[in-house]
Please model this.
Amino acid sequence: MKKTISLLFLLFITAHLNGQIADCPILPSPVVYKKGKGALYLPKMMSIQALPKENRGHLPSSAKAQLELLLLSHHSISLVDTSVRPFIRFQKLKNVPQDFYSIAVNDQLIISYANEKALYYAFQSLIQLIQTEEDIKYIPKAFIQDYPKFEWRGLHLDVSRHFFTVEEVKKYIDLMAMYKFNTFHWHLTDDQGWRIEIKQYPKLTEVGAWRDSTLKNHYTTSPRTYEKTRYGGFYTQEDITNIVSYASERHITIVPEIEMPGHSRAALAAYPEFSCTEKELGVPGTWGVFDDIYCTKPQTFEFIENILDEVIDLFPGKYIHIGGDEAPKTRWKNCDQCQKTIESNGLKNEHELQSYFIKKIEKYLQSKNKKLIGWDEILEGGLSSTSTVMSWRGVKGGIAASKQGNYVVMTPGTHCYFDHYQGKGNDEPLAIGGYTPLEKVYQFNPIPRELNVGESSFILGGQANLWTEYIPSFKQLQYMAYPRAIALSQSLWCTEKIPFTAFFKILKDVHFRKLDTLKVNYSKTSLKPFVKFKKEKEGMSIELQSKNKNEKFNTVIHSSDCQANLNLTLLSNQPLLINRTKHKRIKSNFSFTSSTTGLSSHVKITNHLGLGADVNYVTEPNPQYNYSPIVLVNGQIGARPWKGHQWIGFDTSRVVFEITLPKRKKIDSIHLSFLESNGSWIYLPKSIQIQKLNKRTKKTFRSKTINSENVNINIGRRLKKIRFIIDNVEIIPDNYPGAGHTPWTFIDEIEFH
Model:
């Protein structure tokens, strides 16, 4: 009966107080926030209740030390025990949701908690509640109740492509704790570096932890350039133990990832006898996917099991991540030993051989009381019901896994890849590609609509991934992770999220200042004006979207057909009309500088006869890259290396779309831009057909084989409505990343001259 009453009370409170959460400075937002009248002023030394020896178990022994550390580091406040009326009182609760806590701020602080983890979350919220004005510290009186929505609230870190020190990893964990993440996915091995000491196999770090060069420019750039300097590093087992303990104190579980069977070049450089060819291999200094993977010979499994034994001893958590992604089958197809394994085990093909590999490793982990987790490729060829799937190639893998009864962590590239660009400006640091702004992260929901209630119960939660090919420093790592990680914390913690506008106000007014105090190099891209393109009868307009509706922007326009700059002031949401050119191609540079923040946005526009034309997609673009139809005719040329917001992406082998010009016009030529990035599954199309559309007929009048990213097609006729048919290869060939899958076709501006 007590449990029923407690939960009913909680639900009653939640229903009546949710409207006030938007006023709460805590992120992620609590379930309940009720603001009172007045404030509780804080002394420089706060007293907590002294506990008699016979009641020491009431408050965890580490709690006082944890709280004092947080108060000292954030607010220069110390703690002292008292036997009289304390400033902070603690109360342990029963019959409440898991990890539940409450904070009551009146004439004293009362913290109630379900368990030690909940108490730590209460401390984090308390730290966020404290405000300072002229050295006076206070907390607005309030009542808070809170508990998390999802069990798995994770951040990932790849230390293989670029290495981060023990202290940097600890700082990363500190920020995770601040925003109530509870899982640190530590990507310790990959093609470009082996980062964990394995005492039985010392060459893994002696050889595998070091490479002789590192790619300097983007993977898609030709020619590629390299930093010819020995690069690497690794964590000793003592380092690992230290970091695991550090994370545990902050109630964060570390999930180590040891990649297999693919992404294993660093290991095979150290021990080539476990590859199919047994040839000497170096540790590569470029990114991508490599053909050399673990051979399925018995000696390989012994090697891997011995490694896992040492890994298991170091990490007390229940999960071991084995990767399982992007494993080319080229070597297996030509390996006598692997073909023998297929035959002797009654397997159909190399995909089932991968499933055999994964199941064999899972069985071994189970014998050690550990659970296997891997990327969604482990579904291919069949999967044990006890494996956990991390869905990164969208949510399809996660949906399939949960429907068949596997637990799932959602981490789709659409919302959770923080190695993507977060801003549209050319001043953004080099990234792998894609476009994942703050608001898109905020929209993430780990539970897809396709799942029913029962199937949804298999979704453990979600995680953001930080792959570090283009993140060479801890400063840049912070820039890519924050504030997007804070937005993600809302999706993983909150039962119901407040509107993005309310979240952003709290983020800007409260948490940016906290990050400044902690000297975190977070991105301020979200504070820059966002440029919105809109189709107009005469061409196109651009509007500056700002969270501050009254913000002014100093605007400078330089056009190729005019010597002088045009200077003007624009208000937020005030349209600026760009008339479609009637004759020649015109290039213009726009610079918008906020009068309040001093931050700028820059836009380059190429004006042509089709600017702002009507676009009809017969083939629907993938929603990850389809931001609006006008993207193809807004005058913005897609950047290389690619940034997702400037491109329309199709994951079909044939792409069909139609463009209707404002009026029938003689067109001399049409210029199309495509993107080729095979490492990202983006392929140059094979051919294009152009059809002239009338009311009753459509007739192909131009066809062309595509051999480069920039295609110019001579037209020399009057046109109004045109259909484009673009054909790509149907599947990615063997020996390439994504082999067997449909390639992407990326298109940006269609220029009419």
